[in-house]
Amino acid sequence: MTWDNLNLLNVLKNNGVVVMPTDTLYGIVGKAQSESVVNRIYNIRKRDTHKPCIILIEDVGELGKFSIILSDEQENKLKEYWPGPVSVVLDCPHESLSYLHRGTKTLAFRVPAHASLRELLVKVGPLIAPSANAEALPPAKSISEAKKYFGNLVDLYLDGDLVTSKASKVIKLHKDGSVAVLRE
Questions:
Q1: Any idea where the YrdC-like domain is (predicted)?
Q2: Model pTM?
C-alpha cells in the first residue's frame, strides 16, 4: 500500500476527511491540528465526545507540536514501541488542545511502522485517526463497509483492499517510564 497519492495529499492539506488504510485498520483521518476537522470527524463517526482519538505522527519529534515534553525515561521507553502498532498515551494538560484531549488531559500517539505512511505524515502533518466505523460498530475491513457507514460524509475513500489487522495496542507511558496496558 502506498499513501503517496496526489489527491490524498490535496484533500488532507485542505482540511478534508479521508477514509484510508492506516498501518493497523481503516481509519477516518484528518489534520489533528485543525479543530474544525477533528470536530467534523467526531460528528461523522458519532463518536463519544469525551473520548480522545489516536494521533498518527511521523516521529517522536512531532510530540512538541502538542506541547508534550518527555522525560528521559519516557523517551528511552518509546524506542521499544515506535515505529510500530502501539499507541502511547501521554499527559497533555494544555487547555488549547482540549478539542483533542476532550478533558482527559491525555493524548494517544502512534508512529506507524510503514515508511510510506510516515512519509505522508511528513507532507501533511499529524493526523487524527480513529477507526473507520460509527461508534460501537465494528471497524470497516474494506472501503465498501466504510461507505456503508459514512456514505458521502467524507471527502475521499482510499482503497487498500481488505484490511485484517487488529487495532493497535494502547499503553499509558508515565513520566518515570513505567507502562500501564490499556488495550491489548
A1: 2-184
A2: 0.94
